[in-house]
Amino acid sequence: MGEQHRVVFSPSGLSATVADGTTVLDAARHAGADLDSTCGGRGLCGRCQIVPSMGHFDKWQIDSTPDSISDWTSTEADYTGRRPIVGDQRLGCAAHVCGDLVVEIPAASQVHKQVVRKSVDASGFEIDPIVKLHYVELPKAELGDELGSLAHQIQHLIERDFGVRPSTVEPRVLPQLAPAAKRGGNTVTVAVRRGETITAVFGGYVDRAVGVAIDVGSTTVAGHLVDLATGEILATNGVMNPQIRFGDDLMSRVSYVMMNPGGEVELTNAIRTALDAMIGDLVTDAGLTRADVLDITLVGNPIMHHVILGIDPTPLGQAPFLLATDAAVDTTAAHLDIDATNASVYLLPCIAGHVGADTAGAILSEGPHRSTEVQLLVDIGTNAEIVFGNAEHLLAASSPTGPAFEGAQISAGMRATAGAIERVRIDRTTLEPRVKVIGSDLWSDDPGFAADTASLDISGICGSGIIEVMGEMFLAGLIDVDGTIRSDGPAKTPRVFADGRTFSYRLFGDADTEDGTAASINVTQDDVRAIQLAKAALRAGIDLLCEHAGGVDAGAIGSVRLAGAFGAHIDPLYAKVLGIVPDTPVDRVSAVGNAAGAGAVRALLSARQRDEIEATVRDVEKIETATEPRFQELFVDAMGFPNTVTPTPNLATETELPLPQPKPEGASRRQRTGRRPRR
Could you tell me which residue ranges the 2Fe-2S ferredoxin-type domain spans (predicted)? Predict the structure, then answer.
């Protein structure tokens, strides 16, 4: 088995016993410690920096010495990431455990709670919950009465008073019947599922049945506590998906499972623990208890879906991307290690190996299958899910956009937390920028901006800001159609500066600061390329579905709906400027928020909605972009801003597009378009 060492992480006090030579990052994962990493432990992001603590620690009975951690590594020596390694800090992915060790995780290396911007709109359908409450008054029993068992009496009274006769009582409820009747003075309220099974009993009169709808995203998990009778959202909560410590994107998590025996169990335990904690927080916020939760619905992409159920996700990481099941799944909270004794759990059906229950939820919410007009529904994330069509024919696909839209692979990219730049405007004449950050309502050119943001760490750009700065740089003539930051930029503004063989734009910070100053936030040529690759993959998937639908013209699309936490905050105009979506009139392009979560709420509140989505997904035509030869051609066409080959007459009427500019002197006649996407 090899030598084992104990590692304790402060300030949390979490610990793990790991084999000699384990990286500190892997030890943190085993311990469940809050240590950030967005590059999957490849020594690129610099976010997993830790401080080894030396000395004798009575609290943990550990002697932590310099010999307890490996010497400085070549990975650390060669590291050139944006966040410098300072002082005694080490890269957690490069430093290895050689003995019992105490490790401090600095605040900057912790995965802070994300600003979760997932709200739902679940209206326009009939509430018909799976679980309903029924109050009954039991007759006072006298010796010699032939009333039958408590279970029989309750079943009879429900049938008499409500016209529903539950045929069974869950065995775990049987021991609770007599105590509940005693507490309620011979009255009880029972929960009946689908009119057939008694799933819970409460003493006395209870008038509120609640359920929880949860959208399990790869980055964030959003939950909503809902009144099953009225549809009222009683509480909402959002947390980071703890699996992010195993990798920023889904494929890196699958790779973790492939390379680490038992890794699938770690992923399952991490997300189940998060779900359990979220439900506890939701009921506490609403002044209820876990026993009050009677039903739970879950949506998520195929990998999240399988991991929650304890199914090995590795078949979804390689062709032919086989699902263990694409059907809806009914189970119990207890089966998923969730402390909600009275709750059943319903997972919406999946559609294909890369199109999951979250897409089914979005379809249920936005209703392209109920529409006569053609609808394009795009849930933008690490993998973008695309649905195209109407009541006559629906097509669905997933496109490998990667995590660039969410800030990964971007030099100054960060998650949507306080201090992140989320809005950008560039003056067309002076080329000076102004920005808005999360946590302040002021633009940076407002005199009160500095005071209003004094407590914020403005250290990067989140997804919506990345889209806007790219669009603004293109509209201002700083970026060519092919995505090249122009080499004549320095002659126009000191904010454009030479950066190796390419050029960068200083978005935040003084224009004349030294290159690479930590206080400045720059947009590099590699950043532009990363966004080009992401948006081209998404657009190629959209165009591929249009072709399969018979070549629908952009002007014939009735509505374009951008869903998800990221899609909900994209300005539709900038989505068109970059060519993320077709040239449909901008007034038909809208952000619809967390459509997947809204679909989960619908499924929570209506048996008919569950039946509807189960029937609908069976008829969806699945298009696998990985095996479509045309996808690569469409990808190359989509690399340009807004598009290399497709005209944009609508966009030309909606904003002032830059005039064509001659290539700067010395520029290559053949511009690099970047590499093609890989899953």
Answer: 5-109
